[in-house]
Amino acid sequence: MVGSELVRRMNEGYARLRLEAARIEELPIEVEQLRKAIEVASAKVDFDIDPYDFQAALLELSAGAGK
Amino acid sequence: MTDWSRASLTETADAIAAGKTTARDVVEACLDRISRLDGTLNSFVEVDGAGARAAADAADAAQREGRPLGPLHGVPMAHKDMYYRQGKVSACGSRLRADWHAPFTSTALQRLDRAGALDIGRLLMVEFAMGPHGYNPNYPQCRNPWNPDYIPSGSSSGSGVAVGGRLVHAALGSDTGGSIRCPAAVSGVTGLLPTYGRVSRHGAMPMSHSLDVVGPLARTARDCARLLGVLAGADPADASTLARPVPDYEAALDASAPLPTVGIARGYFDAGVHPDVARAHVQAADDLRRAGFTVKDVALPPDLLEEVAELHPLVMKSEGAANHTPTMREQEADYTFEVGHRLHAGFFIPASHYIRALKLRGQYLRAFAKAAFTQADLILAPVLAIPVPTIAETTGRTGKAYLDMVVAITRNTKVINYLGLPAIGVPCGFTSNGLPTSFQLIGRPLQEAALLRAADRYQQVTDWHRREPATI
User: Fold this and answer.
1) Which of A12, B120, B396, B414 has its CA 20 to 30 A from that of B272?
2) Residue A44 located in a structural domain
3) What is the pLDDT of residues B179-209, one digit of tens each?
4) CATH entry, B4-466, from 3.40.640.10, 3.90.1300.10, 3.40.1350.10, 2.60.40.60
5) Which residues in chain A have Cβ-Cβ distances shorter than 8 Å to B360?
6) Which of B328, B348, B370, B374 has the highest number of chain A CBs within 10 A, making it the mutation to test binding with A?
């Protein structure tokens, strides 16, 4: 679960944005939603696949394109 | 006397080539319309009248001298203010780039130039292409040509409004989550999202490089076919472009091959559709049958598409944050409030999450294709499931109702960007507020020819794309 303390520490260590305290309280809602999105899908991630598989899929599926 | 500013791009280009009019006359007609209407619509951030007239005269002189003419010879276009032209300002809707001069010309503009198109100005866009409602507080309010109280949608706001308002014949937009199809839909014009990699992004401002697609907004599918023929193809300067031959899209419109089957999307795309929109889409399916298509229901996996809809912002925000890190750290005050806020979350996504979202794309694409394209060749779905909202409903609001509205605008479009598929948005009627509504046809990768042919056939039996705002 992403909370405001985690966002504050990540901001200090990595992002280094000039975020107001109120914004740091708001942000975890959106960040947690993004975290959940990948957690839901994570079981489907294939170890042997890399992101370039997407281009391969585009070309592979275009082969059936006609008409 | 024909007002060529109101004709389609192909009609106008063919009339110029045939000597029925001149590039100068067409440019004057467009400039006249811009001077009369754009004070209200605010679709342009810069009109280069002197440059347009000089370019038109040069085009007419070339024709008189018998030089070879490109397929867009003498036709006025204008483009989303994010296509770089060497030595010219490309502000990308931002105060940060208000005086930034591009060091080179984008591949898309180079190809349009070679085809003879005239570039008469820069069109308003949402700041850094981040926002579906279409307005930008850095500029006067861009307004819908059908009713100035309604949103232009975005982020290619000016592109939709200028084409819908008959100020130019066509415009480039860019589409990361719906930014061609949504503004095209709300302005009643045709918008084409090519397959990811079909058109070079070199020299187009990056918003999210894994999702960004360059494409045209125009008045007809035939216009889009001609434009895609000019724009498409591999580019050594953009490694994401697909090295596949470019078909003659315009010739393919008139092919005698059997028509593709059209599947009405059931699942995900039919959730939350407003009754006015649903009514127009039932009529559109009937009109497609009348045009000779086999149309049937196709069950799509809603869970898969819901997951895709959640993964799209993870990729978009991660890449957006990466692009904007230095300026967000040092100059966030120069971003508009909403865009600055849109960028924040991307800074807190672990790299492993972002990369996993990318690793999944091919798998989701194959799963979607197996579900959809084994049942039909093309999938039919609304662009916006809701009637066009007013500016008042989307401006300066915060809270859940506002966020729900913003999410609703791109719900049906962003999933297609994650999957990298081509789609074409086609006007198909009006909702009870008097604003246009559109369907999108979604195809297999690189199946633009089939999409364009289907849209063209539909436009031969309907006239929604010919309807003009009362202000015209």
Assistant:
1) B396
2) yes
3) 999 999 999 999 999 999 999 999 999 999 9
4) 3.90.1300.10
5) 41, 44-45
6) B348
